[in-house]
Amino acid sequence: MHFPIFPSGVRSITSSISFKKEDGKIVYFDWQMPIFTHDEDDIKTFRMFTSQLCVNGNAKQVDIIRAFGVTKNSVLRSVKLFRDKGPEGFYSLESIFLLMAFLALGRVKTIESLRAQAPGEWGKLLGLDRIPEVKTLREKINLLSTGDTAVVWMSDLSSDWMNSEPESAGILLVDGHVRVYNGSQTKLLRQYVARNK
Predict the structure, then answer these.
(1) Residue with the larger pLDDT of the pair 137 and 168
(2) Measured distance CA(125)–CA(31) in Å, rounded
(3) Which strand (E) or helix (H) includes residue 36?
(4) In a domain, 141, yes or no
(5) Total domains in the fold of the chain
(6) Under the phi-then-psi rule, with left for phi > 0, alpha for psi from -120 to 50, and beta for the rest, what region is 175?
(7) Residue 119 lies in a domain
(8) 53-69 mean pLDDT
(9) Given this model, what pLDDT does residue 194 score?
(10) pTM value?
(11) What are the C-alpha distances in Å from 12 to residues 76, 157, 192?
(12) Does residue 160 form part of some domain?
């Protein structure tokens, strides 16, 4: 297996895309604007990003081979994996779902707001070097929501939950109160009304 070579200084991949090794990180530039970064030893993310460059038409496979000293077969395999499975080939379905759960718990309102946050810190929660880029997350969510995929998944998940506790399967509790009850038919205890404490 040939690992990519990241020489010091700014190196060109194409006439507009270049990269630079800086403090153990590889930073990619489109002209002078940074567009992506990953750890120097994060080969998985390197393969995902360079495959994305090739599939999107930003670079040719020969450009990647020449710039990083990787083998042709390695690039071909990575590009094929990206074309067949998209980012899922590099980021598992479980890691995407876990990321969405952590974002909800962290009260991150939109995926776009991840652009201003450190991807490595979120990645540590998932056991990854970093989380996928915003564009990759959007593509993954689009793949998950096309057709009736979400409905089928929801149905399968509900069936699993129902089968795991069949004695609770027929119980459904719905409480439609959105405001504190203040009618006169029932006397509520003071301790149950937060405003009256």
Answers:
(1) 137
(2) 33
(3) strand 33-39
(4) no
(5) 1
(6) beta
(7) no
(8) 92
(9) 55
(10) 0.51
(11) 20, 48, 66
(12) no
